Amino acid sequence: MNKISLFFIGALLLCNGAFAQKNEYGFFVGSSGYFGDVGYENAEKMLAHQSPAIGFIYKRNSHDYLSFRTSIQAGKIKATDEWATNSTRKARNLSFESSIIDLNLGFEFNFFKFSTRKRKITYSPYLFAGISAIAFNPKVMGTQIELQPLGTEGQGTNLPNTESKYNRFAVAIPFGFGYKMNVSKKWSISLEWTWRSAQTDYLDDVSTQYINPILLSSEAATWSNPSDVEITNGKSRGNKNNNDWYNFTGITFSYKIRNKPNKCPKALLP
Fold it and tell me: Could you tell me the residue range of the domain that residue 247 belongs to?
């Protein structure tokens, strides 16, 4: 096959691709949840403690099996050791809540040949993966007391074996699955559940060890150990080897806008 033939084939594919692409603008409504060092010990209990979440999604359907998307989602995550079944964790009495904003970029892979145009198959399960930038700000549950500025594990105090205060911006790795279907020529609906593996262990302000309360400010000492249990310096407060997780679960309503067909230049046509 000569170069001229390859050129014509490539040009025709590009022209056909112009007809296949369609944009979607969607509104997400659902819930968000958390799993980490505070609260329940089993991840499956996450769904029992969800908070409302909303978001906006843009999709670029470049192929019947593949869509690229970006979205921004916002919700709340929270937990308290009162939810724990382990008596030691329950006695620890830590709690937190935080708003969380997730800006992500990723792709959907459809299991079936799903098209935004009218076809016999108008539904498909799919997988989602990507990368997220997140913002969070843990507070004592039910209050406006921000935990990061306090340095509850000695952060920012220059004490031995402590670190600087953690960043309230981080990266996360989202992945999950969903099911989508066309309900009309202009509208589609998708059900989705995605986990986010946060690349930080401080969504809940808990990670390393207790610090001698004498070395902390009075407020930091109060919220570092709000229990009645006497704590020795250096005792484990969290598990620094496991980062925190959170999820978004819900429904997206999408409005579809077809691109205007791009006609192939006459010079490319036989």
Answer: 22-259
